[in-house]
Design goal:
Length: about 350
């Protein structure tokens, strides 16, 4: 899940495929529990067989024209949703609670010195603004392939986490593994889990391993090892959208292991970025709803817990936000968020208050 950093990649991807899912471009109202102990990063990494780097190759283009989207249903209401919240309180840390309600995404291009060349746009004061706008969960990237650190700049990261907790927000750490070096990816995920956070997400979108079958094998190896590390604590898979993988560009990741991920992870967080789609799929309530339905079918779990990451925020309208809310509420999923904070606008968050829980 990256952003401006996305622009160059997006231009390239558009030339290769019909349109790829932009990724690399994702209040805590319950009672907090003490951070659970997890196995050390070194110990867990040692259990995973090192993997040899695989040459990078572009994803093959689709061999067939994408199927058209389903017939457009009646549009959602255009009136402002009520801002009252669901009465029940969200469960605490390392449960599905942090995925309920309204969330916002930060990546390392927002908050670190190292990746931004000393010009991070997000400061601790931004956390207060998020809380004031009704945001309940902060999804924050904790490591990056361009940095040697397993947890990048803890001296900047920890104050952001602490302020989020002070304002009643939950924090979900996330990391994008390249799968080129599974022990390193595992070590970084375990290090993220050892932070004072409330959950952990694995951003599954890298094509650094060119062969889809080998990429899938390494992903499942990593996922199994991570599950062993965190035990029964709730973790999430941050995935490309199902419409992207199944309809728009099946060549992006053939054989994507939806069923296995649904069995290993507690929640799926699809990157449902309708703003980057062709006009046929650039309808928020259609795109978001179709992704939810397809993920439930592909995982074989009609009740699969899902939190939608929508956006990209600077490419969507308030009508789009209404549509996203409609798709989420009509299907009874956990909640929704916008990618990302820096590209969002206050009126979008005013509408998303309708999704608050607790």
């Amino acid at each position: 899940m990256q952003r401006g950093k996305w622009v160059g990649g997006l231009a390239c991807a558009v030339a290769i495929v019909l349109v790829v899912d932009l990724m690399a471009l994702m209040a805590h109202a319950g009672t907090r529990v003490d951070r659970p102990m997890v196995a050390s990063a070194t110990e867990l990494a040692a259990r995973v067989r090192p993997t040899s780097p695989t040459p990078v190759a572009p994803a093959p283009p689709p061999t067939t024209q994408p199927a058209p989207p389903p017939a457009e249903p009646a549009p959602p209401p255009t009136t402002v949703p009520p801002t009252t919240t669901v009465a029940s309180a969200r469960p605490g840390a390392w449960t599905l609670g942090p995925y309920q309600g309204v969330g916002v995404w930060l990546d390392v291009y927002d908050w670190t010195n190292e990746i931004t060349g000393g010009n991070p746009s997000v400061q601790v004061a931004d956390i207060d603004r998020m809380a004031d706008l009704g945001i309940q969960t902060l999804y924050i990237q904790t490591a990056h392939r361009k940095s040697a650190a397993d947890v990048i700049e803890p001296e900047r990261l920890l104050p952001l986490i602490d302020q989020a907790h002070a304002r009643g927000m939950a924090v979900v750490a996330w990391y994008l593994p390249t799968l080129e070096d599974v022990p390193t990816d595992l070590r970084r995920l375990v290090a993220a889990a050892q932070l004072p956070v409330d959950g952990l997400g694995v951003d599954i979108e890298s094509l650094a391993v060119a062969d889809p079958a080998e990429r899938t094998r390494r992903l499942l190896e990593l996922s199994t090892a991570l599950r062993q590390a965190v035990g029964a604590r709730a973790i999430s898979a941050i995935t490309p959208s199902a419409v992207h993988l199944q309809v728009v560009n099946p060549g992006f990741w053939p054989g994507f292991p939806w069923a296995e991920l649904g069995a290993t992870y507690d929640a799926i967080v699809p990157m449902s970025y309708w703003s980057v789609r062709k006009p046929a799929w650039r309808i928020a309530h259609v795109y978001v709803g179709e992704n939810i339905d397809r993920i439930r079918a592909a995982t074989g779990r009609p009740d699969m817990p899902i939190h939608v990451a929508g956006g990209i925020a600077d490419g969507i309208s308030l009508e789009d936000v209404h549509g996203m809310i409609h798709a989420i509420q009509s299907r009874g999923i956990l909640g929704g968020s916008l990618y990302d904070w820096n590209t969002s606008q206050i009126p979008q968050w005013d509408l998303l208050r309708a999704l608050r829980v607790g």
